[in-house]
Task: structure prediction
Amino acid sequence: MAENGNDSKRDAADILLNGWMDDGVHVYRLRVYYADTDLSGAVYHARYLEMLERGRSDFLRLSGVLHSALEARDDPQFWVVRRMEIDWLAGARIEDVLEVHTRVASVSGARVTMSQAIMRQGTLIVTAQVLAALINEVGKPQRFPKDWIDVFCGHTK
Result:
């Protein structure tokens, strides 16, 4: 019985830390802190990039694609953002609770495009399209393993 209780506590902690998948969309919840804001108390525009990055990173983690495992390989590989398009629709302020929604829009052998949105209480405040790729130590593009493509395609809508 205690083991089940510990498992559900661990599951809840994982959700709090990593977010969760909801019908192919990764949801990552965060709070706006003082360090995220400018002098007016509004979120500084560059902080949204960090929020989007955390959403993508935890999406990958929950999909079984770990940054640390890529770097530890005999032929280390790294993620790079090739292109990003962002629209700021409204601002967030200190103490707001935000959700970063991440989904795969498209995938090819060496690139994945992710659609992201930042929401505040159901209101869309930021949208982003992010093209990411995998490279080796000398910057040469690397093809995704087939199982990754399967995972990414399983998250496309």
About this structure: Helices lie at 2-18, 45-62, 67-71, 146-154.
